[in-house]
Amino acid sequence: MSTQDGPILIIGTERSGSNLLRLMLDAHSRIAVPHPPHFMRYLSGIPYNGDVDAMVGDAMWLLRNHIHPWPHVIDRAAVTEAAVSGKAPSLFGVVSAIYDQYRVAEGAARWGCKSTFMVEHVDEVLAELPDARFLWLVRDPRDVVASAKRAVFGYCHPYRMALRWTAEQELARAALERWGPRVVHLVRYEDLVSAPDREIRAICEFIGETVEPAMLAHHLSDNARVTASLSASWRTAGDPITTARIGAHRHGLSDRERRQVESVTARAMETLHYPFDEASLDEPAPAPLGVALRGFAVRLAVEARSLCTDRNHFRRWRRDATVRWLRRRATPGRTLAMAGESR
């Protein structure tokens, strides 16, 4: 596989515009980027000990219960064959084989992955596929948190989501420092929607592709229409590029929530050139019990709304149950909490 045909992975934090960037890339004739089942997110903690059949079997279970069904059938035997050829078998090798089948079915030259949680697995990806390239998508954490409060994916409590954002930006920055700008490219959501022509040119230059007009009209694609129809949390996938959601925290967060977010994210915000109120640094951390109770209450409200609006609500419940079952089966006698909600 040449450098130009290497996979493209979007990393960072959910609710940062990753569906927008995914659909812009997917609109390119040479790139196929399906909605991710988050294989590494949900399966990487399971001790497979090199058991390829177990890795492939669990990945296929997850794919069958994906909240955004793929339009192509993946051949399990072919995945197993690809996973055992060449390098020592690994979970990401299985994931790569699955995505490669999707790429072939789409008639594309390369595949992409929008599972932002792959920020935790950059080294593993590059060990398997040295030609992989990473788009570090970053958005104002206050807007990320405001979006997460209304979404069925991610932490509903602002403080917990702020902690996640901070940890994942630190991982992305470490990856950039380790591998350099030829492997990791920083994309600011605010720049992407404010100057899409310029940013898409920069992205295409980074990944070695020619800009195609369809990338700036992603919302007209069938993939965008399907994504927007499945969940209220994805409804903007069918909208044209807009700056309307920059500064969403101004009406989506209370003053106290904003201060709590800034108190956690201030250092990373400063590094990434997001202005914040220095007085927020003195904001005390909320009590853990209060965070748990408030998060639970908000989650109930979000779930109730999802039940009324989302076509994939029960698929998400089934997916979550599948993940719990896979993990408990792997560690009998011990209950493992899910690693966290996902898109």
Automatic annotation (TrEMBL):
PANTHER family: PROTEIN-TYROSINE SULFOTRANSFERASE, PROTEIN-TYROSINE SULFOTRANSFERASE 2. This is Sulfotransferase. The keyword Transferase applies. It comes from Streptomyces albipurpureus. InterPro entries: P-loop_NTPase, TPST-like. Keywords: Transferase. The keyword Iron-sulfur does not apply.
